[in-house]
Amino acid sequence: MNEEICVRFGEKLRNTRLELGYSQEELSFKTGLHRTYISSVERGKRNVSLTNIKKLADALGLKMKDLMPEL
Amino acid sequence: MNEEICVRFGEKLRNTRLELGYSQEELSFKTGLHRTYISSVERGKRNVSLTNIKKLADALGLKMKDLMPEL
Prior knowledge:
Two copies of one chain form a homodimer.
Chain A: H1 4-19, H2 24-31, H3 35-42, H4 50-60
């Protein structure tokens, strides 16, 4: 899986996480998702689905739409 | 799959599709996704992933964030 949309979502997640000052480990702990999964999402390797987008948004204190890239 | 987020996404998709005046058949044709898949998404039965959210948004002339429920 290396579609442009996955790459753009991963970039958006990574930039947002860093802006908010979280490490991948912290985001992993808050979401219950494995750190290596978070890492692969940020590298655009995962076609993330609604339930995990929601977990990521909740952990960052955001709405789901705030994690959507401008596409 | 019947998580609240999937139900809320399905409602948002259905309401948006109807506001824009598309049938499920038309949305199916424009996305390349099967009509029964569109139907199950709208009933909250699918954990839709980024690539299909993108197809649905493109077919409706929207950004992906415009299809995200307020969650």
